[in-house]
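Tutorial handout. Part one gives the primary structure; part two gives the three-dimensional structure as tokens.
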Amino acid sequence: MLIGLDIGTTNVKAVAFSDTAEVVANAERANRILSPQPGWSEQDPETVFQNVLEVLSETTRQTTQSRPASKLRGIVFSAAMHGLVAVDKEGQPLTNFLLWSDLRADELAKDLRQSGDGLEIYRKTGVPIHAMSPLCKLIWLRKNQPEIFQKAHKFLGIKEFVWQKLTGKFQSDLSVTSATGLLNIWKNDWDETALALAGIAAEQLPELVSPSLASQLSESWKLSESSLVGAPLIIGASDGALANLGSGATEPGQVAVTIGTSAAIRMVTHEPVLDEKMRTFCYRLDENRCIVGGASNNGTNVLEWLRTSVFQSPLDAEHFANQAIDAPPASDGLFFLPYLYGERAPLYDASARGGFHGLAARHMQAHFVRATMEGVLFNLKIIAEALEVRQPIRTLHAGGGFSKNKLWVQMLADIFQRPVLLNENDADASVLGAVKFARKVLNLEQTVENQRGRVVEPNVANAEIYKSAFQRFKILLPKE
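Part two.
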């Protein structure tokens, strides 16, 4: 048995897989997001850590009860990117955990992005300059909270914080680290220019290690967490990189499309690929592979906004979205710019705002629903165009909550004019990818294969309509 642990923004989840790839146990805990000031987005790192302990304990307890003879072969970690917490020498937090969605560094990020330094940093690190970047968070912390900045022994992400608590070691995997804006992706080492800009030394960061690194539970935990003793802890990679493994999008031309609260489109490459307009990121999956793509702040959250804030609909999210079937492709000329929560890719503008365009008296609720879903996909297609400058897209691999909605998946195929592959395994793509990764690290037979489900082909007539509508959508975009 292997346990995949995903430390996400909204929740922490653990899933136990049998040696035959069957999900035998799972547990989940919600992470509370704090907003002490407008634009700030934080979490209590100790609460997140407690959630980790609880889901691991619950998952192992379920497994012991249902399969008492099963052996725990290891626990592999997946985690969200772009967070930052300052800690002292004992690993105790000096700040709350600053999430990827924290915008306190927005103004300095804009200044850096427009400077020559911003493009130079991007060319070395592959991380577009944006308030989400730990690099920008560090600069903000140095300028606005100098006492905490000077007192900090280390600056960590949430996985590194949890890892240190469990193993006693300050270590960071190459994959998550490559999303900080501090790692030179060409050298797989800290970038001196970025460190100087942040005002820190490499010694203030965790030790860089391979995503394949395996460690053990520290002595201090062995009495209270006895069920985990002896099982290797594999540090793993980022949730985005592992989602590609989980969805089966592992070769150039195979693109993973994920739409949950936020949205992302990612492709695996065998060398760094950059975009001179800084529209895409390039992170490390491991020492020999990269993940190239873009992440949007706006996914199912904008549809939820429409459901609850605009229409105050009594329908649940699934039935609300299904109303879109009553509107035609391109929503009778109604367009939606989905930038309700600012934007990362492709705009990288935290102050970007959304809205409906082309509104007429003929537009009903179904049109608004469909236009919102189309707007999210049009935005992802802009990111895809940047990817295709270097590598044509052949197939799309759908994941996240939206992949359960047949109409939204069909829209994806129609707008991108590409077939969409669905995975029959219901496990979260990041967790599934983490377990596949762990089996390779531990030299176990690869039984966690992608159970290929249906293939959704584009509708030719709809694709033609969307081809024209997409050009109109791009005209409506905020101008730089």
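Part three, for discussion. Residues 2-240 form a domain with the Nucleotidyltransferase; domain 5 fold (CATH 3.30.420.40). The chain has a mean pLDDT of 95.
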